[in-house]
Amino acid sequence: xxxxxxxxxxxxxxxxxxxxxxxxxxxxxxxxxxxxxxxxxxxxxxxxxxxxxxxxxxxxxxxxxxxxxxxxxxxxxxxxxxxxxxxxxxxxxxxxxxxxx
Length: 101
Prior knowledge:
Blueprint: H1 3-27, H2 32-48, E1 52-62, E2 65-73, E3 81-89, E4 96-100
Antiparallel strand pairs: 1-2, 2-3, 3-4
């Protein structure tokens, strides 16, 4: 194998390693199912307080961190209020918590 061939093989190997690392890190923390679970828990929690949720948007900010917002209506009001929200995942990668302000 000549020098060009060796370079191509090394470049391909580096690309495979980089891709594998990126995919592995993406699989850690919040995945789409976890995000939907957090949104469902938020919806249920607001419903228990008799607050109507019109929209929830939560996006990954990092592997174990979400950021977004909730649009809601409080009882007796037709006005839609928007609150910024965050969610975090504990080191155990199971326990999650969220808050809106």
